[in-house]
Design a protein that fits this description.
This protein has helices spanning 13-24, 28-35, 39-46, 54-64, 68-72, 79-82, 94-109, 114-134, 138-157. The chain has 159 residues and is mainly alpha-helical. α7 runs parallel beside α9 and α8 (114-134) packs antiparallel against α9 (138-157).
Length: 159
């Protein structure tokens, strides 16, 4: 059976990719940068002119924070390729993880004395500064900057 005849009935994967991208408010270029492919390649994927390989589907699933199999389920993505997809992918970036940890530490700081909270939170100044230097994504840089501002406010409140 050829790959084309092996396709399940359903919506085109390209439409689903475009919908996920639009939901995030990203341009094709922004998605292309995250996937390390060209904007034209993203355009071709979304238009259904080409199918992504398993690596690209895994990256797309990670970027969209969905399971790879859920991303392709019910689409025209070839069944043979879908069977080779990984079961799990990373669904967060290092920036998202660090900001989530900071948020927990900020909550924790309200439960302990100011001296202990200050010691814990001062370590975040160094961590966020280092993270800001290695983050290339503009949206993530803004998220780090916002986190740094929240941290400064909290540290100021502890004095």
């Amino acid at each position: 059976m050829s790959e084309k005849s092996d396709r399940p009935p359903g919506e085109g994967l390209g439409r689903r990719i475009a919908a996920h991208r639009a939901k995030l408010g990203w341009t094709q270029q922004e998605l292309a940068v995250r996937l390390a492919i060209s904007r034209v390649a993203v355009s071709h994927l979304e238009a259904g002119m080409s199918d992504p390989g398993e690596r690209t589907v895994a990256l797309l699933a990670s970027v969209f924070k969905v399971d790879p199999h859920d991303l392709v389920a019910g689409t025209t993505y070839p069944r043979a390729r879908a069977e080779r997809l990984p079961l799990v992918v990373a669904t967060h970036t290092e920036v998202e993880l660090q900001i989530a940890l900071l948020d927990r530490d900020l909550e924790w700081s309200t439960l302990v004395g100011p001296a202990l909270a200050r010691v814990q939170l001062e370590g975040w100044v160094v961590r966020l500064t280092a993270l800001a230097h290695v983050t290339h994504d503009q949206r993530e840089r803004r998220a780090v900057d916002d986190a740094r501002q929240r941290l400064r406010r909290e540290l100021a409140a502890l004095t």
